[in-house]
Write a structure and sequence with these properties.
The protein is α+β, with helices and mostly antiparallel strands. The chain has two helices and eight strands.
Length: 101
């Protein structure tokens, strides 16, 4: 298995722009497998809370991002259907419903 993921070959369920850059983050091991979207893509591309991967890693290491009530520090962890995403500093809660895929 490869450790790299090109944007053009990423799953269609991932809400990313295909032709802006060459590579994107690859989903790590987790409860949703290939059907989940990596957490960093949600933070950076969907919600727009961070601009770079470095900022996302810093935010995750602060322990303020919870998935299903558990603090997460792995930016590659897949977030899937009906997961609850909580940002404690912003006091925001989201339930994940993918549109396509």
């Amino acid at each position: 298995m490869t450790r790299h993921q090109k944007r053009l070959s990423a799953p269609n369920a991932w809400p990313i722009e295909r032709k802006t850059q060459t590579f994107t983050v690859k989903a790590g091991a987790g409860p949703h497998g290939e059907s989940g979207v990596p957490l960093i893509i949600l933070l950076r591309d969907v919600l727009g809370y961070v601009d770079t991967t470095k900022e996302a890693r810093y935010a995750l290491n602060q322990g303020t991002v919870l998935i299903n009530g558990t603090a997460v520090s792995d930016e590659q962890r897949p977030v899937g259907l009906f997961d609850i995403l909580v940002f404690t500093e912003r006091e925001e809660h989201y339930r994940v419903f993918p549109e396509a895929g």
